[in-house]
Amino acid sequence: MRKMSVGTLRSAYRIGRSLVRHELLLLTCLLRWVARRPHGVGGEGRAYGYARGQGAVMFGFGFVCVVETVTMSVLLHDFPMVHQVVLVLDLYTVLIVAGLHAASVTRPHVLTDTALRVRRFATVDLCVPLGAVASVRRELRTTHEKREGELDLAVGSQTTITVELTEPVAYSTFFGGRRAVRLVRFHADESDQLVRDIRDRGEVREAQGVTQGRIALSPLPAELG
Length: 225
Fold this sequence. Notes:
The protein is of the alpha+beta class. It has four helices and eight strands. It has a domain at 113-207.
């Protein structure tokens, strides 16, 4: 029982720490959004957004949260203590929704001469070496099944690009675990352009005789930098 209790406490601590880091990152994304300073973009890297794919949904969700906040304030006007608690929770929900949208805007996909950085909100940050790309194609998919070795990063319930790898690429999960994948599907607003650019840069690297690297470990999804 003691070992089980210690294990449970460690799991709860790990989950709590991951949630706190994630929410701090969302707040950081809000500041970056206001300052118009995207994360991880600069130098030779080119950004490819994916926020338009879910912008309307996020706006609608945020609007519903605001309406709920106003409605609950009116209904609980005669119950001050309950009203204050519910108001804090509602405002915090609105802040998180805004943070999620800010994360999608300030943390775009990034393509450099050596790697493709695929991201979604503040939860997934996958770095794929171009030397490990076996094929890349424009492929619209609206249904996805969870399979071993595959990563689906749907936005608005769809993915538009499929990347097959020659070797596993590992990344950090939300709770700090490690997972290796050999096929990645994700969404990009300019999917056709991104596919062309990946192919072009891959051909350049092949012409230069760049050899394939070993398995790449992606940065933690809750990186605050």
